[in-house]
TrEMBL record:
Lineage of the species this protein comes from: Bacteria, Bacillati, Bacillota, Bacilli, Bacillales
Annotated source species: Ureibacillus xyleni
GO function term, MF aspect, one: homoserine kinase activity
SUPFAM superfamilies: GHMP Kinase, C-terminal domain, Ribosomal protein S5 domain 2-like
Summary of the function given for this chain in its UniProt record: Catalyzes the ATP-dependent phosphorylation of L-homoserine to L-homoserine phosphate.
Protein known as: Homoserine kinase
Reaction(s) the record says it catalyses: L-homoserine + ATP = O-phospho-L-homoserine + ADP + H(+)
Length: 305
């Protein structure tokens, strides 16, 4: 009997305000692949969040898995892949990073690459171009990371985030490449110093799990949110409403268009109910930090038949 694997990868939110391209938090929203080696390629999408039509040779899972195998001199065998996703595409919830991490794990399994966790961090972040989402999806929890000029990731990993998160997902897409076009090419020194100080305080507050300060500095970004806000439906209105309803803080999730609030667990149900009333045009979801990161289980073929 041929082997079959289930690969599960959490989505993520990046930046949390001023932690631009560095801070990532995995969320309990998942991409799941069921993979077996076969005699011909077949990728099946069984989720509303995945496109109904695609070209195999352009599929992100296919291209990244082949690229990863080739890095180590291996040839990727044909696979049958069933994909499920709770991550809407191009909404700022790490769907692309999750797919990249899943594809690397796929190549690792079917080609016996024996990749270390550090290998997975480096490869995924090199492909993404920044370590925030990918590192969070590999490790789970909160990550504060840097990708150096040699393509090596160094990360501080924080677990047990004692808060809930609410995501406000609009019915519009915004690709990161488009959201980057509105950013300035450079900042004045004084402005950059203040922006960096805010990012430092956010990172320190996250490590200390000082949720009041986390919320304050989430809302102090100067690197990207002032320029991207005009692209985001109801950005300022959500900020104000969330604060009035008891949120610690609110920020763009990645490049947007999703907005994310960090809230006390005790007010979760009441908060979501109130936000759904105020923003009926958004999909509003309550989630928590994922603490496992990418995971794999081997299953018998008849279990998932």
């Amino acid at each position: 009997m041929s082997k079959k694997w289930q690969i599960t990868v959490p989505g993520s939110t990046a930046n949390l305000g001023p932690g631009f391209d560095s801070i990532g938090l995995s969320l309990s929203l998942y991409l799941e692949l069921t993979v077996s080696i076969t005699d011909k390629w077949e990728i099946i999408h069984i989720s509303d969040h995945l496109p109904k039509e695609f070209v195999l040779e352009e599929h992100l899972i296919y291209t990244i898995a082949k690229e990863t195998a080739a890095r180590f001199g291996k040839s990727l065998p044909p696979c049958r892949i069933e994909m499920k996703s709770e991550l809407p595409f191009a909404r700022g919830l790490g769907s692309s990073a999750a797919a990249i991490v899943a594809a690397i794990e796929l190549a690792n399994l079917v080609c016996d690459l024996n990749l270390t966790t550090q290998d997975k961090l480096n490869i995924s972040s090199q492909i993404e171009g920044h370590p925030d989402n990918a590192t969070a999806s590999v490790l789970g929890g909160l990550t504060i990371s840097v990708l150096d000029e040699d393509g090596v990731v160094d990360t501080i990993h924080v677990q047990d985030i004692d808060a809930a998160f609410v995501v406000f997902i609009p019915n519009v897409e915004l690709k990161t490449s488009e959201a980057r076009k509105v950013l300035p090419e450079q900042f004045d020194r004084g402005y950059a110093v203040q922006a960096s100080a805010n990012a430092n305080m956010l990172a320190a507050s996250l490590i200390n799990k000082d949720y009041e300060r986390i919320g304050r500095y989430m809302e102090s970004d100067l690197f990207h949110e002032p320029f991207r806000a005009k692209l985001i439906p109801y950005f300022h209105e959500i900020h104000m409403a969330a604060k009035e309803a008891g949120a610690y803080g609110t920020a763009l999730s990645g490049a947007g268009p999703t907005v994310i609030s960090i809230i006390p667990i005790a007010i979760s149900e009441q908060f979501v109910k109130q936000m759904k009333k105020q923003f009926p045009e958004h999909e509003i979801m309550l989630t928590r930090a994922d603490h496992q990161g990418v995971s794999v289980i081997e299953v018998a073929n008849d279990v998932l038949a």
